[in-house]
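Two proteins, back to back. First:
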Amino acid sequence: MTTTAAGICLGLLVLLAVQAFLVWRFIAALAAPAPPPLADDDCPHATVILCLRGLDPFLDRCVAATLDQDYPRFDVRIVVDHQDDPTLGAVRNWLASHPFPNVRVELLEERRDTCSLKCSSLTQTVGRLGPEVEFIAQLDADTIPHRGWLRELATALADPAVGAATGNRWYAPATANWGSLVRYLWNAAAVVQMYWYQIAWGGTLAVKTKVIREAGLLQSWQNSLCEDTMLYSKLRSKGYRLRFVPSLMMVNRESCDVRSFTRWVTRQLLTARLYHPGWIAVVGHALLTTVVPILAAIWAAWQFGHGAIGETGACLLCLGIYQLLLFPLIAWMERCMRVLARRRGESLGEWNPGLLLKLWAAVLLTQAVYSRAILQALLLRRIEWRGVEYRIGGPWKIEMIAYQPYVSSQPTESRESL
């Protein structure tokens, strides 16, 4: 075996060992015993904010579950992008038959051209909160919260050193098409990184209102593309911590195709580039986990073309072992998620040999798509997000350059509502 082949094989094995350690620590966090939930008398007043643009497939379940929280003092604010958005009529019709005294549906009145629509909606809503509200909790339209969702967020915020609390997503799509499998595999790696780098997730996120004031978050949101990724730096600057709540790993059952996933993941990576100090580590992880396996495959093909059968076999063997041993890590995480889901009365679909084979084939596709998305995120200066175009001049130089009301013929990408 040549030095190059040996180096590639050793690199793959070291990479696998590092990933196993990171996953092990993440799973240890998932398995840690949860603190006792706050008693009713200790629960602070909360406002739940749901920002909407377009009809998401699970919107009715999201709204129903949000209003059905086992929490003594909370109200709900639903902000819809435009009066012609079909979401507005759908939400009002649903609430007409399911009345809830503490819910308000309002239109986004000022679409700032210096931030995303979601940040405009949050700025409008939070700016109008009364002094009785001690924290806000936000979720996306594809998050279906269990009854203890809000209480678990409040329990995490009970620590004076904690300024914000967050969960994360876990995909369990009903249709195992290629796009959904690629997203599943990418996300399994992403949630581990988000845990280690303390990247907040807006799909389940609570922030103390006093922290919003102290950290100047309203002013930051007015000039930002997203509201969540910046939180780590903002909290740290004021001496607060972001707490990950393992029980708030939320199951997402939407499906997607490869094209919509690529657009979505590129935007996720762009926000990390703009707002999180761990961006360099994210890029490094992407290069190691995608470039090294791809180089191994290219080197094996090169050696095969030059008749070096032994070198080809060695590289392919190491690559196969690497790809194969990724599955116990994914299966380990999947098992922990199934335990969490069962505690909430949820279930995840069964795996079968056909699905496992398709997942294994999807690993290389995931690595290729991820590599492309990283490169795009590094170079991106303009994005389209649900029919709205933004120019990216820097973290705090966001410009909305093309807006139109959402219409039902536009595809709803899997992920954030605005």
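And the second protein:
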Amino acid sequence: MIEKPAPILTKRQKEILDFITRFVDEQGYSPSLVEIGGNFGLSSVATVHKHVENLQEKGFVTRKWNANRSLNLTEKALSVRAIRVPLAGRVAAGRPIEAVEQHDFIAVPEDMVGKGRTFVLEVRGDSMIDEQIRDGDFVIVEDRSRVREGELVVALIDGEEATLKKFYREGARIRLQPANPEVKPIVVEASRVRVQGAVIGVLRKYR
């Protein structure tokens, strides 16, 4: 069972969190919403407030209601170190879809990065819903071809169709098992399947 998905920070939210952290380190107190907006060229305090509110909902800051300079960094914010990991494309958690190569990056908490080459894929479909992986989530994948029975993998079928499923060997065939009773497993000759990596984590963008 995959652990509960970690919240993903948007690029702007990560920038604002980093600014708050630096400001507190240098000044000894938190910046006001106006100061945050000024640093990023945001004239609307309401826009800044929304970003801070999202950080609060994701557990990175706390803030007293209607008080200036009341931002406090949580232990979660103080301990997080993000590493830029390639966003390699999309993968189907349903019927296989064509693998998509992209050239973008996503910030992943350091403790969620694999030992080997790691990349991120955006999930399409709900076939892995019982593993707490939903349409629109991002799976963190460690690039390796050797996987254990029952491990959650990204598999390439016939060299072009990527799918997210649990991996099982059945003689000369491979069964790619969904985690949704409404979706049928994919059973194909082993020669048609190439494992691209094992899923080691999940990120979810709540906003």
